[in-house]
User: What shape does this take?
Amino acid sequence: MTKPTSVATRTLSIPAPNGAMLSATEHLPDGPVDAGSPTVVLAHGWTLTRQAWARVVREVQSHRAVRVITYDQRGHGRSTWGSVRSQPIKDLGDDLAAVIAATAPNGPLVLGGHSMGGMTVMAYAGRHSSDFTDRVRGTVLVSTAASIPDRKAVPGEAFLMGAMARLPLVSLRPVPAGLHRWTNFGENPEKAAVNEVGRMINATRLATTGRYYFSLTGLDEREALATIATRPSHVIGGTKDRITFFRWIRSVHEGIAGSEFTILPGKGHMLPYEATDVVADALIGMIDES
Assistant: This one.
């Protein structure tokens, strides 16, 4: 296959259900796309943006001349909310379907999701199972869960999140870098990665954080795992993940018959930064599936 030396990008605005506009980036290799290669579509996590995939995209396209689509989830980054004030995780599958319809209406796909983005991929498989089985060559699910039934809420957490959900669409929370480091990363994280993730989280609208909280606590995408199992899949998790506990990540692997499972000792939640090469290699493996 061709080994590209650089990429070109363009920004797209994609209409989504309930009047939302999703902002997406098309990443193209500097040269022709490899014939027959899939389009790679990547969904990011809660309180992040498509920027969270930037390192992985560069690594993938340094080895394969493929087209990659990243986008901001509804209410995140440059994507709007539309008319809804809450966003069930299952409905994120419809947003992903809108992104696919607008950017890759034909041909094979590889889907990748980090954290809430992995849940989005599961929701897409559940809501659009025929399209999934017909077109998806493989999935990579990173630091994600299909359900979180045993999570214990921090006292007052639900009240605070409910209040945030009703606030105007503003971001007013300069959380210290040390807290981002402890919460999102494992052992010995790179300072630049901690700072970049912190900037994304701090810039996320308070209402977005609050509105998604209740969707995440009610998460149940276990039925969708049977559809994902119809195609090759790779689940990746860090043992020091303080956001999506490792037992939840393992349950995703156990729920997808035949899935590959990569365990990363000492790594945390932000594997697109902490283990860029591992995540990119998993996507390349799916790109190469025939």
Notes: The domain at 7-152+219-287 is CATH 3.40.50.1820 (Rossmann fold). The first helix runs from residue 54 to 61. The chain has one domain: 7-152+219-287. The first strand starts at residue 7 and ends at 15.
